[in-house]
Amino acid sequence: MATERFEMRIDSDLLDRLDQWRQGEDDTPSRAEAVRRLIEAGLAHDNKGRAPHLSDGEKLIAMMLAKLIKKTDVEVETNVDLVEKVIVGGHYWALGWEMPGIFHGHVDKQSRVRFVVDVLDMWSFIEEGFEKLGKVDRKRLATEAAPFGEHVQFPGFDGNNESEHLSIACFLIDDLQRFSRFRHRDLNSHFPTLEGYGRMFQIFEPIRKMLIGRGLSVDELVSILNSRHT
Q: Is 188 strand, coil or helix?
């Protein structure tokens, strides 16, 4: 796809808001990339807000199902009459009001999914490596990687400020049955984790490529855990 260069000027307050937004993204995009993403998001929503949109084919299917449900007296939780009126009148915003659990407008960001998968993978190796250490190495880890080297366990994500990351992790573990070692745990860390995990993964990633047939050494664990510090 061909691209074109253009310049724009914005005031300092808007620039500060742009910087705050991009710093909240897991990959901290450049200003130019941040502007591109925001423009795409804005154009996608246009002036329609978060109202659901149905194609003509989807409208037809919904109306046929509504008629079928009424004719067969099948019990459903959905208000079929309301759905018909929404489609006929074009009141799609009403679906978000009446069924927020379905029409919530949220979609997981792929960058966040990748980040969560990387974090879960990293912590799987960290916990496995820790479990294989002998007493001497565990004592060394507790000393050299204090305070993180004594009780080495994945703390999860902050339920207040990292709720999307926590939701993705729980879905991967509980619903997709991945990373089974973390199942049945409380993964709400109750404290911010993203920056620390980001620093840890920068250390872990090049090591990960060499972990064929072996686990993390005590030296590697010390290096990774210590990187959680600012």
A: strand
Architecture label for domain 110-226 = Orthogonal Bundle (1.10)
- pLDDT recorded at residue 48: 47
Phi/psi zone of residue 140: left (φ > 0), alpha (ψ -120 to 50 degrees), beta?
Answer: alpha
CA–CA distance, 61 with 66 (Å, rounded to integer): 9
Sequence spans of domains, the chain:
12-45, 56-98, 110-226
Rounded distance between C-alpha atoms, residue 153 and residue 124, angstroms: 9
- pTM tops 0.85, yes or no: no
DSSP 25: S
pLDDT digits (tens, 9 = 90+) for 136-173: 999 999 999 999 999 999 999 999 999 999 999 999 99
Contact indicator for 183, 134 with CB cutoff of 8 Å: no
Residue 74 exposure: Cα atoms within 13 Å on the Cβ side: 10
